[in-house]
Input
Amino acid sequence: MAKIELVRGDITEQAVDALVNAANSSLLGGGGVDGAIHRRGGPEVVAECRALRAGDYQRGLPTGQAVATTAGRLAARWVIHTAGPVWSSTEDKSALLADCHRNSLRVAAEIGAATVAFPAISTGVYHWPVESAARIALDAVADAPDSVSLIRFVLFDKSTYDIFSTIAG
Ligand code: APR
Output
């Protein structure tokens, strides 16, 4: 049974086995978490992302899927890139957001990452309401693989941290 932790902070400073990146399907970087991870991870990270795009992910990483690369110069060993769904008020994409978490944890188990840090996926540039995202995220990680011992949600701002804390109870 994985221990679930909520902390306020910067995901790039977490000394865990794997950091989950709120990436996009290009895998080639962006802003927010994606920008911070690539900036601090260094060129090794995007080099492995490019290799993925040249190999198994020529059409990009599908929304809800997850794939691991080196963490480069970050304190973690791996980055698990996942592409969150963009919020839609007319289409329910909750299953895809849940998939981001479940697939990231499946990949963590496959690579042997026992401690995993998640950002609040899709709640920034992708505009997913934080309360809804927190419910989906906390529910999705409840049945993590036995090999994952720690799941840490790293919330960047106080309001997101407070909402996750309220939902977590
Ligand atoms: N550490 C932890 N959380 C962070 C950090 C950080 N260094 N930087 C931003 N956040 C928070 C944001 O405040 C938000 O709560 O992470 C959450 C997710 O925001 P985004 O990074 O914008 O991710 P997302 O909403 O999933 O959008 C992904 O944005 O950066 C691009 O390339 C990325 O196209 C993709 C899209």
Remarks:
- The chain has one domain: 3-168.
- Residues 80 and 121 are 12 Å apart (CA to CA).
